[in-house]
Amino acid sequence: MLDLFDLPGTERRFAEGAVLLRGLALPREAELLAAVEGVTAVSPFRHMVTPGGFTMSVAMSNCGAAGWITDRRGYRYGAIDPETGNPWPAMPDVFRALAMNAAARAGYPGFTPDACLINRYEPSARMTLHQDKNERDYAAPIVSVSLGLPATFLFGGKERSDKTLKLPLQHGDVAVWGGASRMNFHGVNTVADGVHPLVGRRRLNLTFRKAL
Ligand code: SIN
Ligand code: FE2
């Protein structure tokens, strides 16, 4: 059902410390997409393997001082892209500016992300429930930007078994969570097939964190 909270420009507090900023990324959509192309031309999308040996359905890349990686040795942040042997590309200014603006609007002024994970969901990809806990300091929030195909974001509680809220995420939406909900479980339901006019047959997600 479409209600006032689903319109671009509206803000919805969906948990304590968590805010959904509808359409906040729309005014910079072209620059954001060009920046994704620039980063992934240097550090291409790849399907990483979990410590348990499963290949993730979501393809990933990173930019910024620290990139999130997983392989058989575990989950961690590192300055070097293991595929290229070079540092991850620098975080584009348009990324940092959007993340800082979103965090400030959500009540987290002074957020300085040093890591941006870029997730690419092709239809049928999903992200199972997890907590973001590889960062050194949990005081900083998570800023998550959605582009392209829509998806259902699942936002739960501190236990994996807690009930989840289902938030439809559209192209341009930005979700921020921190404070009391920083360690909440979250995930993304299987992305349905479709074609986004600007982004194509995929959903892109930018997850900004202060990792170091
Ligand atoms: C994540 O939690 O890393 C991804 C969230 C999303 O794709 O919206
Ligand atoms: Fe996450």
Give a nutshell description of this structure.
This protein has about 210 residues and is an alpha+beta fold. It has 2 helices and 13 strands; from the N terminus they run E-E-H-E-E-E-H-E-E-E-E-E-E-E-E. It has a single domain (about 5-210), classed as Alpha-ketoglutarate-dependent dioxygenase AlkB-like (Jelly Rolls).
Largest sheet: spatial strand order = 1-2-11-8-13-6-3
Which ligands accompany this protein? succinic acid, fe (ii) ion
CATH topology: Jelly Rolls
Calculate Rg over CA atoms: 16 Å
Helix proportion: 10-25%
Number of beta-strand segments: 13
What is the count of distinct domains? 1
Name the poorly predicted regions. none
What is the CATH homology-level superfamily? Answer: Alpha-ketoglutarate-dependent dioxygenase AlkB-like
| N to C succession of SSEs | EEHEEEHEEEEEEEE
| CATH level 1 name | Mainly Beta
Largest sheet: 7 strands, antiparallel
Mean pLDDT: 96
Strand portion: 25-35%
Number of helices: 2
Describe what this molecule looks like in 3D.
By secondary structure, the chain is α+β, with helices and mostly antiparallel strands. It has a single domain (4-209), classed as Jelly Rolls (Sandwich), CATH 2.60.120.590. 13% of the residues lie in helices and 32% in strands. The chain contains two helices and 13 strands; from the N terminus they run ββαβββαββββββββ. It starts with 10 loop residues before the first strand and ends with a strand. Fe (ii) ion binds next to loops.
Write the layout of secondary structure elements.
Layout: E1 11-15, E2 18-21, H1 29-42, E3 59-64, E4 67-71, E5 74-78, H2 93-105, E6 115-121, E7 127-130, E8 142-148, E9 151-155, E10 165-169, E11 174-177, E12 186-188, E13 203-209
Antiparallel strand pairs: 1-2, 2-11, 3-6, 4-5, 6-13, 7-12, 8-11, 8-13, 9-10, 9-12
The structure holds succinic acid and fe (ii) ion.
Fe (ii) ion binds near residues 130, 132 and 186.
